[in-house]
Fold this sequence. Notes:
Chain A is mainly beta and 74 residues long. Chain A has helices at 20-24, 57-61; strands at residues 4-10, 30-36, 42-46, 67-73. In chain A, the strands form two sheets. In chain A, strands 1-4 form a two-stranded antiparallel sheet. A two-stranded antiparallel ribbon of chain A has the order 2-3.
Amino acid sequence: MAKVKGSIVVDIEKCKGCELCVYACPTQVIAMSPDVNVKGYHYAEDVNPDACTGCTNCAVVCPDGVITVYRMKV
Amino acid sequence: MSDNITKGKMIKPENLVYTKSRVMTDNVTSYCPGCGHGTAHRIIAEVIEEMDIQSEIIGVAPVGCSVLMYDFLDLDIQQAAHGRAPAVATAIKRLMPEKFVFTYQDDGDLAAIGTAETIHACNRGENIMIVFINNGIYGMTGGQMAPTTLEGMKSSTSPYGRDVATMGNPLKMTDIVATLPGTYYVTRQSVQKPANVRKTKKAIRKALEYQKLNRGTCFIEIVSNCPSGWKMTPVESNKWMEDTMFPYYPLGDFKVPEED
Amino acid sequence: MERELRLMKGNEAIAEAAIRAGADGYFGYPITPQSEVLEYLTMEKPHERTGMIILQAESEVAAINMVYGGAACGKKVMTSSSSPGISLKQEGITYIAGAELPCLIVNVVRGGPGLGTIQPAQSDYFQATKGGGHGDYKLIVLAPASVQEMADFVELAFDLAFKYRNPAMILSDGAIGQMMEKVWLKPQKERSREFPEWATTGKTPDRERNIITSLNLDPNKQEDFNHKLQAKYREIEKNEVLYEEFQCDDAEYLFVAYGTSARVCQKAIELAREEGIKVGLLRPITLFPFPTVIISRLADQVKGILTVEMSAGQMVEDVRLAVNGKIPVEHWGRMGGIVPTPEEAVENLKSKIIGG
Lengths: 74, 260, 356
């Protein structure tokens, strides 16, 4: 059975660290980085990338449109 | 298979399933972290891109947090005086009926100072889309009471909570405009969760499709958050919104065309 | 529509002239003594004649904001009202000036303050010429003295408004709005199909998005913008002053009056000259830009100036600035909706200027 695999790319410098994506992700892919961007925000990063299904939920709730999502069948 | 290889393989144009609409500019929005305005802008941009009407649509920005909407949406936009966006949009549409026209207004703009313009544009059935962001507070000026502030809700001008006996009741504009014959499609949605965002985006799409058919005013309220004004984290504010705002401002369609 | 001679009210002449000038839209709200503008336009169905849009708004506030919206699309749009209604429009007018949009605003002035009276007055001079709303801005202000000029100034006002991207006002009064005179109407002009490059008509791929706003959060940019506006006003002052002189060549005294008062003064000149008083009249046609240079020049020739205004004396301040103390400048006028008589004007010329 084909498995769907996803990946996200976060535009770190434009992330405002609101964490909405963290809660929107059904597979706990995203967490806030301990590091901060130029504006001083802890930014979102995919700490558990293997679990990403490319469902786009994180990008859909992102107020700043900083998440780009890719998906492919593997 | 290591992560790196997987990621490298996946990040290719043919695998792209979601990216910020090209109808958004590259500017970072002036909104606070977690604010629903950004999401609302984004989905408006997405619908415009999907309908391929960037060159045929004119937006009207209010006075409020979204006063700088023209910095974030790559559209021809007019910035209106406080509350007057529906009047401004009326003229644009009357003079250029072949174009799409929408207003984007916050609660102070639409439901306080602009009540007359809102009601009358809706009553005339102006063939425009009105997007109404209701977060129960004046965000831009620093968290004052709005017409939509809930009973008991604290703000900088209702520091002991809104006392409806002296400050009036929170105004349900969407319920009001739904009673007017000029409105064609009236709905109240939200953008805090993926499913809500997707529903609201569909509502915006419908409204613009109806506009193409000259059906009348389409009115979309988006109940939204104000983490800074409410003094909460974005995640807390969305929870508070669901628990406290939604019972008073229940989501759903108020007026659905028969053709649906 | 050919050139045509008609007997019309001033308000009707404005309405018909707007259609013939190729206006795209009119947005108004009823108020005495200018309601005939909206009435004439709705009766005339200009949409069928030229495609011009007419809309009765829910308020003067809405009407001026409709003008903003239409003007920002590069359309030739206008509104009309009378004094209390013009006060309501001030917010919209300053936004229009701040966004540099061309449009026409007609004020058929009535007596104030407050609800005042429905009779003619000239007590909105300050409001019209000094900005009216908040911020440093100017309107181009034309003051018709006849029904013919009510008609003629519509096209002139639109032309100036578009030339300078600035709101223009016709500052009339209840007398000229209501009275009937013969008027030559110009042939029908076609509505423009072209949009200025700044107009919001939908962002096409070949250009950057067009933004119409009066907001500048950066104070340096706002100051730059203010300098730009001021430079524009200086340019208007240089190029667009209009006035009319009556019997100024041999004048020893001078009336300065505009609109209805100027008509009164024309008769007053005749009466005074029958008594051997050599008086002339300078009638400003543009109130902004004000005919400062010619008034200063005439101040070198005459012994004194009387401004006649249907107000407590507003334009007199600009005349004094132009004269700069060279000779006495006094004001005389009637208020509250009363039109002065020529006899009164002559009496006051004698008592305030000649005998003084």
